[in-house]
Specification:
The chain folds into two domains: 31 residues; 41 residues, no CATH class. It is mainly α and 73 residues long.
Amino acid sequence: MSMHHSSKFAVEGFSESVSYESASQNIQVKLIEPGAIHTDFGGRSMEFFYASPPEIVAETIYQNLHYELIEMF
């Protein structure tokens, strides 16, 4: 589990760095971290967590791509 969390933290840091580097060129970086999505990937372990249906996650991401701040649930 620690490898999973540390890699997500690394992606956040990388995204923030790229965002600062590309700001002068008017390029925005958006990082989407939707959390738990109900798929077969987690198997029975997902029964213990609230997981959003993938269709809802996809629609929310699509609708919010043009906003400054993306918030889900």
